[in-house]
Specification:
Elements lengths: L10 H19 L12 E9 L11 E7 L2 E12 L2 E13 L5 E4 L2 E2 L5 E2 L9 E7 L2 E9 L5 E11 L2 E10 L2 E13 L5
Antiparallel strand pairs: 1-2, 1-12, 2-3, 3-4, 4-5, 5-8, 6-7, 8-9, 9-10, 10-11, 11-12
């Protein structure tokens, strides 16, 4: 045994063994896996919709997903009814992975100083996040109403070949406000 308490050979041979093990693991792992969002990349337009209140038409639902770096940009249309009547909204939100995928948070918007900041639901700004559950992408939008109630909107998009199922749920203080289901058709879009 030498002064370092090892049985000889020094650091160089052990370093080589570690490099060899890392190389072998890399070969066994194969090519880099696709990002979990990749199957969703594309443009989807409403094909049919079912809404018990009759407020939605197929053209009121749509989704577009583009990969950007480690995250993705989601652009979607929604129509909900609230105290102010029917509201049609377009959302364009960049999501970035947090901790372990498949959970994503909305990338903050630049503040006055140019630094990224998170949305403030207490000021009525929607806070977005997303997650993947198998072949389903779930987008969440949460905000606090002026009177203090919690407003949560959940958009579920499930891949099914060239079609994508759509389910929407709007909750206020945990109670259902509206629900809708439907189908979207995937369209080729060269600008992905």
């Amino acid at each position: 045994m030498n002064d370092a308490g090892t049985t000889g050979g020094g650091i160089a041979p052990r370093f080589g063994v570690w490099l060899g093990l890392i190389g072998a693991l890399h070969v066994l792992a194969g090519p880099v896996a696709a990002e979990p969002i990749d199957p969703f990349v594309g443009r989807y337009e409403g094909e049919s919709v079912s809404d018990a209140r009759g407020l939605l038409a197929a053209g009121d639902i749509g989704l577009r997903i583009r990969r950007e770096g480690q995250g993705f940009l989601a652009d979607w249309r929604s129509t909900v009814s609230g105290p102010e009547g029917v509201q049609r909204s377009n959302h364009e939100v960049f999501f970035e992975p947090i901790r372990e995928r498949p959970v994503y948070r909305a990338h903050g918007q630049p503040g006055v100083s140019g630094q990224l900041r998170s949305a403030d639901p207490m000021r009525g700004e929607p806070y977005f996040w997303a997650r993947l559950e198998g072949a389903t992408l779930i987008l969440y939008a949460m905000r606090i109403e002026p009177a203090g109630s919690l407003d949560l909107r959940i958009y579920r998009y499930g891949l099914a070949g060239a079609r994508t199922s759509f389910a929407f749920r709007h909750l206020r203080d945990g109670l259902p406000v509206s629900d809708a289901t439907g189908w979207l058709r995937r369209h080729d879009d060269s600008s992905q």
